[in-house]
Design a protein that fits this description.
21 helices, binds magnesium ion, binds phosphoenolpyruvate, TIM Barrel, 3 domains, PEP-utilizing_PTS_enzyme, cytoplasm, disordered N terminus, Phosphoenolpyruvate-protein phosphotransferase, alpha/beta, magnesium, metal-binding
Length: about 550
């Protein structure tokens, strides 16, 4: 994409329902369409369900019949418990235990008694529940320790109970008992990580292409569309088709069209499953194709199918997104060792907490401008023990498995930060130390950084965010975040050239690496590896195999020009 001159309008994404297109294809019979940004390849079709926001507590109303309010209270708490038990049954395993424990809290007779008593004092059902939950929460918090931390769980139960009392849809992830397309205003990474197997696809009204929710969806191979205006206005149960490549949403598909979409998607996945072997251009120039993962489970599920050459980005913070208590040293060792035993080469990224990936257990202070605040490596300034413990755990996991992981830090800005990180990692016996290039200042000093570390990994998601001063989650700025922008490509070229001079690897691990149109261009700029969600590997492998290195360079030059 070329730079735009001042005053020129950015391309306006096609938005809002419109009549069916006449170009045939699987969406031909749709009654209407919406469009957003496709962020995770694949198609799916099914009934949609909206993720409800927490209910707003209306102004208290005068109570004429306290008995009726008390009955509403009891019914609401019972409905919450029933919903959680139903989800537990569907989830099984550890998730079931957690959901059952929550259901038991909703059924706690003391909670019910307190809320009923409050209705007797003249409170309506919703306010009685609100006050009873607040009291319960306070009592738990006062206990401190593990039970104190469970106090936050009560908030979810409170929202659910109040919604039930007000006759509103229950907030939180739905569990209708059949496959569905999840539609939401926005989704947190923790919501996305907790999605069950009954979710066919994701569509959100907000969000950008490199938001962590999009990344998690891609990691799971779930078709996803973000920045889709109007989708929350559709009724629950509407059968929609989702194209995670084009960003198109077709409204009102018939049963046979829905089945057709499923069959076509199965066929596409089967075709890509046959793609094998190391990454090479048509004339044999090697490009390592690596995986972005968040846990050993990602590896177990997808690595064999992708047939990649290792893991290029292990996002360790994804292991602990919903944790309210810090993971212990032993727990970290076990989680890292699981990944090290699953594949030969792993690049581990130390915790990248902050902004859209808050780690509650860190207890970081609220910030005015979190993307420019204490995130990534910068957390070490406030909480030095966290990085040291993690490096110890990585080193211990390496020793116990015999693996030789490469370790890199996120959000490195200065040469001083890089050299301090390298010193601390090497002191623990970690052999290959690198840094991510996500901040323009780091890209501009790539040559100097490579005097301190063994490799660079370019995080194009954040590098675009910080180069163009455009929030990576902001749906209205998505065009600015397009990694084809020459300014971003120039920064990548600087890093690749520094790597070539130093004889050290420089890879890309941002979402750009998994785009089959962009991957050849990145190779043309000189990057030596591409790390991506496992589902992206086959298409990128195919794209590289179709072009010589010179053709990749021509494409890169054309984009720079
Ligand atoms: C990036 O910024 O490109 C990157 C790979 O890191 P993350 O998306 O996890 O911030
Ligand atoms: Mg990043």
């Amino acid at each position: 994409m070329p730079d735009r001159s001042p005053g020129e309008r950015p391309p306006t994404p096609d938005r809002g329902p419109r009549p069916p297109a006449s170009d045939g294809g699987p969406w031909e019979g749709a009654a209407g369409r919406l469009s957003g940004l496709g962020v995770s390849q694949g198609r799916a079709a099914g009934p949609m369900i909206r993720l409800a926001d927490p209910p707003e507590l209306p102004a208290p109303r005068p109570v004429a019949d306290p008995g009726a309010e008390a009955a509403t209270v009891a019914k609401a708490l019972a409905a919450v418990a029933a919903e959680l038990n139903r989800r537990a049954l569907a989830a099984g395993g550890e998730a079931a235990e957690i959901l059952e424990a929550l259901a038991m809290i909703a059924e706690d007779p003391m909670l019910l008694e307190e809320a009923e008593r409050l209705t007797g004092d003249g409170h309506d059902a919703a306010h009685a529940l609100d006050a009873a939950f607040a009291k319960h929460r306070e009592a738990l918090a006062a206990l401190g320790g593990y039970l104190g931390e469970r106090a936050a769980d009560l908030d979810d139960l409170r929202h659910r109970a109040i919604a039930a009392a007000l006759g509103l849809p229950m907030p939180g992830l739905p569990s209708p008992g059949h496959p569905y397309v999840l539609v939401a205003t926005d989704l947190s990474p923790a919501d996305t990580a907790g999605l069950g197997p009954d979710v066919l696809a994701l569509v959100t009204e907000h969000g950008g292409p490199t938001s962590h929710t999009a990344i998690l969806a891609r990691g799971r191979g779930l078709p996803a569309v973000v920045a889709c205006a109007g989708v929350m206005d559709l009724a629950d149960g509407t059968v929609i088709g989702v194209d995670g490549g084009t960003g198109e949403i077709a409204i009102g598909l018939t049963e046979s069209e829905t089945a057709e979409v499923g069959q076509a998607e199965d066929a596409r996945r089967a075709r890509l499953r046959t793609s094998r072997g190391p990454g090479r251009t048509a004339d044999g120039h090697p490009v390592r194709l690596l995986l972005n993962i968040g846990s050993a489970a990602d590896l177990e599920r997808d690595a064999a199918q992708a047939d990649a050459e290792g893991v290029g980005l292990f996002r360790t913070e994804f292991l602990f997104l919903d944790r309210k208590q810090a993971p212990s040293f032993e727990e970290q060792v076990a989680a890292y060792a699981d990944v090290f035993s699953g594949t030969e080469q792993v690049v581990v990224r130390t915790l990248d907490a902050g902004t859209d990936k808050p780690l509650p257990f860190l207890g970081l202070p609220q910030e005015q401008n979190p993307a420019l605040g204490v995130r990534g490596l910068r957390v070490d300034r406030l909480l030095p023990g966290v990085l040291d413990t993690q490096l110890d755990a990585i080193a211990e996991a390496a020793r116990s498995t015999g693996a030789e992981p490469w370790v890199m830090a996120p959000m490195v800005t200065t040469v001083g930060e890089a050299s301090d990180f390298a010193r601390r990692a090497r002191a623990r016996g970690i052999g290959r130390v690198g840094v991510m290039v996500e901040v323009p200042a780091a890209a501009l000093r790539a040559g100097r950084l490579l005097q301190e570390v063994d490799f660079l990994s370019i995080g194009t998601n954040d590098l675009a965010q910080y180069t163009f001063a455009a929030d990576r989650q902001h749906s209205a700025l998505a065009d600015l975040l397009d990694p084809r922008q020459p300014a971003l490509l120039e920064l990548i070229a600087l890093c690749a050239e520094a790597g070539r001079r130093a004889g050290k690897p420089v890879g890309v691990c941002g979402e750009a690496a998994g785009d089959p149109l962009l991957a050849p261009l990145l190779v043309g700029l000189g990057v030596t590896s591409l790390s991506m969600a496992p589902v992206c590997v086959p298409a990128v492998r195919e794209a590289l195999a179709g072009l010589t290195l010179d053709e990749c360079r021509d494409r890169a030059q054309a984009a720079l020009d």
